[in-house]
Amino acid sequence: MNKGxxxxxxxxxxxxxxxxxxxxxxxxxxxxxxxxxxxxxAVIRELGYVYNRxxxxxxxxxxxxxxxxxxxxxxxxxxxxAVGVDMVVQSAGYVQFLSNTGESIDRQREVVxxxxxxxxxxxxxxxxxxxxxxxxxxxxxxxxxxxIVVRNIPGAKVSSLVSDNFAGxxxxxxxxxxxxxxxxxxxxxxxxxxxxxxxxxxxRDALAKAGIAFDDDLVVATAPSRAGGVEAVGRAMLLANxxxxxxxxxxxxxxxxxxGLRARxxxxxxxxxxxxxxxxxxxxxxxxxxxxxxxxxxxxxxxAAQLLLKQINSxxxxxxxxxxxxxxxxxxxxxxxxxTTARRVVS
Amino acid sequence: MNKGxxxxxxxxxxxxxxxxxxxxxxxxxxxxxxxxxxxxxAVIRELGYVYNRxxxxxxxxxxxxxxxxxxxxxxxxxxxxAVGVDMVVQSAGYVQFLSNTGESIDRQREVVxxxxxxxxxxxxxxxxxxxxxxxxxxxxxxxxxxxIVVRNIPGAKVSSLVSDNFAGxxxxxxxxxxxxxxxxxxxxxxxxxxxxxxxxxxxRDALAKAGIAFDDDLVVATAPSRAGGVEAVGRAMLLANxxxxxxxxxxxxxxxxxxGLRARxxxxxxxxxxxxxxxxxxxxxxxxxxxxxxxxxxxxxxxAAQLLLKQINSxxxxxxxxxxxxxxxxxxxxxxxxxTTARRVVS
DNA sequence: GTGATTATTTGGAACGTTCCAAATTTTGTC
DNA sequence: GACAAAATTTGGAACGTTCCAAATAATCAC
Lengths: 347, 347
Prior knowledge:
- The structure is a homodimer.
- Chain A has 13 helices and twelve strands.
- By secondary structure, chain A is α/β, with parallel strands linked by helices.
- Chain A has three domains: 44 residues, lambda repressor-like DNA-binding domains (434 Repressor (Amino-terminal Domain)), CATH 1.10.260; 128 residues, Response regulator (Rossmann fold, 3-Layer(aba) Sandwich); 132 residues, Response regulator (Rossmann fold, 3-Layer(aba) Sandwich).
- In chain A, the strands form two sheets. A six-stranded parallel beta sheet of chain A has the order 2-1-3-4-5-11, sandwiched between helices. A six-stranded mixed beta sheet of chain A has the order 7-6-8-9-10-12, sandwiched between helices.
- At the A-B interface, α4, α5, β2, α6 and α10 of A face α4, α5, β2, α6 and α10 of B.
- The structure holds a DNA duplex.
- Chains A, B: It comes from Rhizobium paranaense.
């Protein structure tokens, strides 16, 4: 009725108290008498009051908003990561700005700036390729904590949470070697990324430990997508000395590899062993179920959010670098599928 | 330096003008002299000023924030939808709150309330199952436009954008019948949803038109996921009179059906025809490429966002119900794969 | 009942912006 | 150079909250 918006003052008026008291009630302060609290709450419900956080943020400092920007939301890995973040952020009473950069660094800059104007009190970012350490300088200078996930940025003075890519790839190779494979390919991924380098490093290391010579022909870099996987098998099968197994850059590539194998009348898990990386949700239900390095993207999202909230609350912005442990989940696609009850980790 | 935050007043001071002038510059007003504008902008850059939208919103009404809530972000369909929304929202200078409900109606209520407190000026929602028309009443009462996508809610006085489920399923059946199939199953999806009912309706209608008797055994409802697809083939293949083709509730189910077929040594597109629904991004690159009803989730997201922005800007909140046309994209999984150059629509 | 405690409540004064009406400067005309 | 018109600039007064210091009310001990 009056004007439009119902404000604390209207409530105060209707409840016969001062606006300060209403404010106290809103914040759940213990200073206020039980009877008045009840009355105020009743009036609040009655008038359909909605809290105006914008106004509140003007006085307070803590905004109950965090930002999360990912480089490719259409990739299940990042979608799950976002869901993980959402879960903890939501139950902490925060709300998240989420934006997709599509690997565009300009877009990333824009959305981060925009989020900042909107007053985020923290940022989780899976940086677009080519992001520099300086890009988050202004955030951290302003005391806004930043957590980088998935892809690390050398030299950035912010917290990071990445998975143990080296150990993961290494475990995959070790497992395949244990099954008797000698021609093990590394398929998919863009060669000029840190993640690629780390996983390839683990691959080479494990190869060496297993006494298998590294063969440059067996690493075939493609887009880290399903289509890239199809392409990768195609290229690998042109070799004179064909591989009999592959560790893939990620699960999307692995699925593509399976598709490509079948297009050649080879059955993954029978005629050729494939292991993925990430343990995306479909990995378990696919046929054959994908043997993969479990990164638990959702769990990673949750951990990232927890780390961020911790930093927001503690006020101190000291960088913390966490590398998250991974473990190989053996299912059917590697041909060792004895234990079909293997389940994904939910930490 | 001074306190912490740089404000318009600091800028005004440093530039030797009044705060009002700075404000004018910020808004790109044409009232201000070119020379002063330049000076002010220089100072802004120099002092590292960041605009405080929260404060601005206190005075203005339009908040440059929209909310989007989806029921399952881990489903590529919704992830792509969100990306589509993000694209247009971003380039309109807005920023989006995104939340995932995971089909929980309580969570949905919470996040919508929270978004509202944060001052969204519009909401796009793919409602959780069981959402009622009344749930958005308070939003619309406050003049905040709401656009419902994907799943319609009968009786809700808000705009909606859904795909033509009836026509899509119908086209799929017609196509399969045209290829000579008589035992066509309908696989996947929860039976008690509007979308299921619409698609099943299209299926039955097309069956009738093709002169094929409807067989209750051939509709096998399961979860609308990859695992559900696997389950569906399993059940269908137990029938005495087995199907030779299936139209699936969505692409996830269709992929599951392919998996299940292969687990039975049947090759999709050769021994059994499968057509999906949605045209998720992987549909094109999967092997065999999936014949599916193209819903173009990203395009739908874009359209929803455009519709919402239009309503926000025009100020009038009159509901508009759009049913988005779909078209069958014939690829390989239906066995008619002659034209391999079929491409997805990007409107 | 009195003074001291403790428990509640309460008016401003912020916070950083935008808006309005009015003031000032510049430009143009004769 | 005086006057009008146009262009530019500018002080408050909002916006809806939270804080603070201080006021008031309730309770206690004697």
